[in-house]
Amino acid sequence: MRKDIILWLKRSEVVVGQTFLATEAYRLFPGLMQWVMNQNVN
After folding, report:
1. Which ranges of the chain would DSSP assign to H, the alpha helix?
2. Which of 10, 19, 35, 41 is surrounded by the fewest CB atoms within 10 Å?
3. What is the rounded distance in angstroms from the CA atom of residue 39 to the CA atom of residue 23?
4. Is the pTM above the cut of 0.85?
5. How far apart are CA 13 and CA 7, in angstroms?
6. CB distance 33 to 26 below 8 Å
7. pLDDT tens digits for the chain (42 residues)?
8. How much is the pLDDT for 32?
9. How far apart are CA 9 and CA 30, in angstroms?
10. 10 DSSP assignment
C-alpha cells in the first residue's frame, strides 16, 4: 500500500516538474514556444 502512494507521489512530481518547465520556457521564450506549438499542430 505504502509503495503505491510513494509511486503516485513520484509520478505527480514528474508531471508538476514538466508543467513548471513548460511554464518557465513559455515565460522566457514566448515566441519560440508559439513556434514549437505550431510545429506540433501542423
Report:
1. 2-28, 30-41
2. 41
3. 18
4. no
5. 10
6. yes
7. 689 988 998 998 988 988 998 888 888 888 887 888 888 787
8. 84
9. 30
10. H
pLDDT for res 33: 77
| Residue 31 zone, left/alpha/beta (φ > 0; ψ -120 to 50; rest) | alpha
In terms of residues, how long is the chain? 42
Measured CA to CA in angstroms, residue 9 lies from 14, 16, 27, 34 at distances of 9, 10, 27, 31
Indicate the DSSP class of residue 1: -
25 and 33 Cβ atoms separated by less than 8 Å = yes
